[in-house]
């Protein structure tokens, strides 16, 4: 059984970061909402309670069943988690006189305490709280303090229950990783054997068992997630995996053929489906971004359904869903406004009757890339920028036509090739070009032109949730602009997008 750490989420903005830090120590962990988590069995080695925007002093604060777990499993409460255990077990949490946000330094630590092994007595820590633990219960012992926060860390004497007011998961807590290591390895006894190789081995075995002789269809896009999912499934079930790559007419220049070629030598059973016209027909006359997205989602499902019928007796649909997609849908933060409808989220219509298999739904993107490397997948595939399923349709503002797609493909190829040649492709998280249906006046060879605009976008990001525009070198931008205007008929002006997300988004629609 895969040993794991349970992270109970009370809604902190740092909960995912806790998970990342745990996994960087080669220890598997899962995030679950504080009020909805699976049975705690012997695979769980310890529990971490996250921070929270809530206060323990407000009415009906988020709860944790302390009596049930205290003394049976190691527990580490972070910020709210620490405040909760202190407040309801003999201590008191009060509003602090000053809101503490940012760097602080420990001023006292109990160097004998296993939680502080190899940690500097004046170590820098990161604080983010408005409440403070004013008093602690008789069986609680202070094991670290700062100038202003007396109870910066405590242990419930003689047990493996700990609380810390600061955030070890953020990099500004310079010994944060050592502290987590101390808790996870020394206190919980985790083995640190969760690596990309071990993930590959256990996942393939589990897929074999789950799928037996069943057939699976999988949408392969050439992107990182579906490629890694496909190779894992291929190792597990071989020829019973049927990959379908749809040419929706919205791919980048030459992408259809190059993606098909790149998969050929990997031995995957892959079928290309030319559905260009079906997508163009569905998009004809549509200008509203949400209507365009919905139309594309609908045609994807129809094309898939047809392809699955052709294969016959298919029981499963494979998907490249990754962990952030899952976390967002079970988050304790509650429903958020729909900004954009992603074409692949929203479930399958009832008529498809397929079960879903998602071998990557516990991994973050960089972990997916590491698993891909462990599987020997071409670094060129693993290093690709993310590309949205609705493709160029959401990079052509307004109505999509095959003519506009052709113009955008040419311009985008010039842009991306220059990023590669200039050695910046790998430093950029995502780049793409946008076709703006505005016309402006230009002059070329003494002739007046009245043509469209191409906008270039390049962003830095960790996960696509927030992003900043890249400061590309002016010389490179000048070269790209020249090349596009001189070579792409229909374009006489190039602009660069300098908006961050939020308030803008990465894609324009
Ligand atoms: N042209 C396509 N043909 C078949 N399936 C597709 C196509 N485009 C997208 N999909 C499906 O939609 C899923 C979601 O696309 P998404 O872009 O999020 O992931 P990806 O393409 O696998 O990876 P990346 O995020 O790196 O682009 C893909 O995993 C794939 O299953
Ligand atoms: O597979 C996808 N289907 C979609 O419908 C979709 N919409 C946006 N994206 C990608 O998500 C990231 C964030 O994009 P936004 O800032 O535009 O929301 C960026 O990486 C976008 O390219 C999509 N990916
Ligand atoms: N980061 C946190 O967990 C904050 C906890 C609590 N809301 C406070 O302000 O003190
Ligand atoms: Mg993609």
Mean pLDDT: 93
Q: Note the overall shape.
A: globular
C-alpha-based Rg, rounded? 26 Å
CATH class of the largest domain: Alpha Beta
Low-confidence stretches: none
From the helix content, strand content and strand pairing, which structural class follows? alpha/beta
| Distance N to C terminus | 44 Å
CATH architecture of the largest domain: 3-Layer(aba) Sandwich
Main beta sheet, described?
Answer: 9 strands, mixed
Q: Report the strand count.
A: 18
Numbering strands along the chain, what is their spatial order in the largest sheet?
A: 2-1-3-4-9-8-7-5-6
The tally of structural domains comes to 3
CATH superfamily of the largest domain: HUPs
Kindly report the CATH topology of the largest domain. Rossmann fold
Number of helices: 14
Instruction: Please estimate the helix content.
Output: 25-40%
What share of residues are in beta strands? Answer: 25-35%
Q: Which ions, cofactors or small ligands are bound in this entry?
A: adenosine-5'-triphosphate, xanthosine-5'-monophosphate, glutamine, magnesium ion
GO cellular component, one term: cytosol
InterPro entries: Class_I_gatase-like, GATASE, GMP_synth_C, GMP_synth_GATase, GMP_synthase, GMPS_ATP_PPase_dom, NAD/GMP_synthase, Rossmann-like_a/b/a_fold
Pathway: Purine metabolism; GMP biosynthesis; GMP from XMP (L-Gln route): step 1/1
Enzyme class: ligase
Please give a structural write-up.
GO terms for molecular function: ATP binding; GMP synthase activity. It is a single chain. The protein is of the alpha/beta class. The protein has three domains: 4-187, Rossmann fold; 196-382, HUPs (Rossmann fold, 3-Layer(aba) Sandwich); 401-496, 2-Layer Sandwich (GMP Synthetase, Chain A, domain 3), CATH 3.30.300. 32% of the residues lie in helices and 26% in strands. It has helices at 15-24, 66-69, 80-87, 176-187, 196-211, 224-237, 255-264, 276-283, 289-311, 323-330, 365-374, 379-382, 402-421, 474-487, and strands spanning 4-9, 29-33, 44-49, 75-78, 92-109, 124-135, 140-146, 153-156, 161-164, 215-219, 241-247, 270-274, 314-318, 355-357, 430-444, 447-461, 467-469, 491-496. The strands form three sheets. Strands 2-1-3-4-9-8-7-5-6 form a nine-stranded mixed β-sheet, with helices on both faces. A five-stranded parallel β-sheet has the order 12-11-10-13-14, sandwiched between helices. Helix 1 links the parallel strand 1 and strand 2 (29-33). Helix 8 runs antiparallel to helix 9 (289-311). The radius of gyration is 26 Å and the shape is globular. The two termini are 44 Å apart. The model has no long low-confidence stretch (mean pLDDT 93). Xanthosine-5'-monophosphate binds at residues 340, 342-344, 386, 388-390, 430, 464, 501, 505-507. Magnesium ion (MG) is lined by residues 221, 223, 386-387, 389.
């Amino acid at each position: 059984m895969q040993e794991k750490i349970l992270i109970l989420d009370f809604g902190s903005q740092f909960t995912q970061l806790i998970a990342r830090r745990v996994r960087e120590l080669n220890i598997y962990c899962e995030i679950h909402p504080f009020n909805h988590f699976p049975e705690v069995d012997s695979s769980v080695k310890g529990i971490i309670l996250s921070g929270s925007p809530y206060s323990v002093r407000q009415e009906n604060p988020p709860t944790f069943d302390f009596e049930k777990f205290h003394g049976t499993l190691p527990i580490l409460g972070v910020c709210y988690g620490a405040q909760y255990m202190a407040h309801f077990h003999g201590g008191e949490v009060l509003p602090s006189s000053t809101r503490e946000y940012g760097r602080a330094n420990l001023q006292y630590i109990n160097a004998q305490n296993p939680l502080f092994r190899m940690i500097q007595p004046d170590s820098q820590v990161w604080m983010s709280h408005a409440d403070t633990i004013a008093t602690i219960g008789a069986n609680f012992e202070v094991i670290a303090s700062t100038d202003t926060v007396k109870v910066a860390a405590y242990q419930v004497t003689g047990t493996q229950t700990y609380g810390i007011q600061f955030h070890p998961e953020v990099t500004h807590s310079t010994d944060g990783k050592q502290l987590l290591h101390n808790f996870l390895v020394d206190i919980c006894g985790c083995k640190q054997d969760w690596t990309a190789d071990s993930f590959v081995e256990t996942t393939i075995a589990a897929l074999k068992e789950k799928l037996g002789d069943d057939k699976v269809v999988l949408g392969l896009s050439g992107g990182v997630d579906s490629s890694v999912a496909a190779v894992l499934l291929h190792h597990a079930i071989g020829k019973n995996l049927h990959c379908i790559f749809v040419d929706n007419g919205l791919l980048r220049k030459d992408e259809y053929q190059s993606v098909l070629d790149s998969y050929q030598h990997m031995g995957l059973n892959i079928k290309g489906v030319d559905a260009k016209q079906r997508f163009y027909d569905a998009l004809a006359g549509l200008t509203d971004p949400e209507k365009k997205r919905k139309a594309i989602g609908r045609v994807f499902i129809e094309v898939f359904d047809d392809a699955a019928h052709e294969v016959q007796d298919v029981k499963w649909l494979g998907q490249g869903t990754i962990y952030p997609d899952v976390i967002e849908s079970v988050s304790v933060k509650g429903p958020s406004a729909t900004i954009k409808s992603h074409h692949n989220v929203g479930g399958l219509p009832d008529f498809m009757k397929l079960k879903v298999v998602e071998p990557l739904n516990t991994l973050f993107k960089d972990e997916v890339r590491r698993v891909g490397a462990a599987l020997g997948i071409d670094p060129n595939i693993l290093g690709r920028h993310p590309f949205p399923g609705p493709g160029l349709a959401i990079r052509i503002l307004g109505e999509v036509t095959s003519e506009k797609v052709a113009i955008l493909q040419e311009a985008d190829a010039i842009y991306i090739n220059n990023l590669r040649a200039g050695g910046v492709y790998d430093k950029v998280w995502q780049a793409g070009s946008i076709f703006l249906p505005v016309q402006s006046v230009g002059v070329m060879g003494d002739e007046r032109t009245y043509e469209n605009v191409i906008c270039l976008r390049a962003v830095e990001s960790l996960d696509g949730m927030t992003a900043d525009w890249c400061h590309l070198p002016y010389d490179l931008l000048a070269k790209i602009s020249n090349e596009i205007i001189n070579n792409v008929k229909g374009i006489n002006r190039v602009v660069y997008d300098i908006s961050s997300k939020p308030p803008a988004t990465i894609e324009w629609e």
